[in-house]
Amino acid sequence: MKSKIVLISFMLSLSTISAPFPTFAEIPFIDPNIPHGETITYISRTGDTLTTIVEDVVIKRDGDRETYEITSRSESLDRTVVLVKETMSLLSVHTVRKYQEATLDSQLTVLDEEVQFKQDEVKLADFSVLMYVFRGFPFNKLKKLKIGRYGDKKKGKFSFNVKYKKTEEVKVNQKTFECYKLELSMDGFWGTFFPKTNIWYSVTPPHYLVRYEGPSGPPGSPKREMELATYDVIK
């Protein structure tokens, strides 16, 4: 009788161990090793409007961690994004939108963040940082990633899907770059109206943006094309 009790206890312990529990993954993005002093110029076209965008990267230390401070400047918008260097996690976004009628200033700061994402899922505090964060996408290792936003109350709701498509050559500014291609699409009903966005990053580290093709804003916005013009590292 004693041996039967021991056997039953052992089987119960096995069932407890094998019971399905939600497993959480770490943030999927990795450090692309952007150099301090990186300066990139882009030419953006929306309809007949051409805009020059200049991005600068500075590496700083925040306590025991290093951060990327990425500043983007153009005639209509200035933005400073601060990311944790190791994980590309968002710390803050400062945006200044410059309109003819007004200049609008907004600041978003992540005070705390409890990372409990399932495999192949991630949530962001602000979608405006997607193109910066994607530099740390684990190309050739991850095929698809669901991207949601904090504050979505519906369980399992994700706003975007990003897929790694392939490696291909892209010619911009009379130069040819070997690039990773990502495809960004919207989930649910709005996905019918929101066209797919294609983004190309250099295969060569630090995986800088080479070309962007997609909408310039919410559904119904005109198409936007953005291409690399110059890449420098200022020592």
Could you walk me through the main structural features you see in this protein, from its secondary elements to its overall organization?
The protein has a 13-stranded mixed beta sheet with strand order 6-5-4-3-2-1-13-12-11-10-9-8-7. It has a single domain (23-233), classed as outer membrane lipoprotein receptor (LolB), chain A (Clam), CATH 2.50.20. The chain has 2 helices and 13 strands, in the order H-E-E-E-E-E-E-E-H-E-E-E-E-E-E. Helix content is 9%, strand content 49%. The N and C termini lie far apart (78 Å). The chain has helices spanning 2-18, 130-133, and strands spanning 38-46, 49-62, 65-73, 77-84, 90-98, 103-109, 121-124, 144-149, 160-172, 175-186, 197-202, 209-215, 223-233. The longest helix is centred in the first third of the chain and has 17 residues, at 2-18. The protein has 235 residues and is mainly β.
Number of distinct helices: 2
Helix content: under 10%
Which stretches are low in confidence, meaning pLDDT under 50 for 5 or more residues running? Answer: 1-25
Calculate the mean pLDDT score and round it. Answer: 85
Strand order of the largest sheet: 6-5-4-3-2-1-13-12-11-10-9-8-7
Question: What is the total domain count?
Answer: 1
What top-tier CATH class fits best?
Answer: Mainly Beta
Q: What global shape is seen? A: globular
Might you state the CATH topology name? outer membrane lipoprotein receptor (LolB), chain A
Sheet having the most strands? 13 strands, mixed
In whole angstroms, how far apart are the ends?
78 Å
CATH architecture classification name? Clam
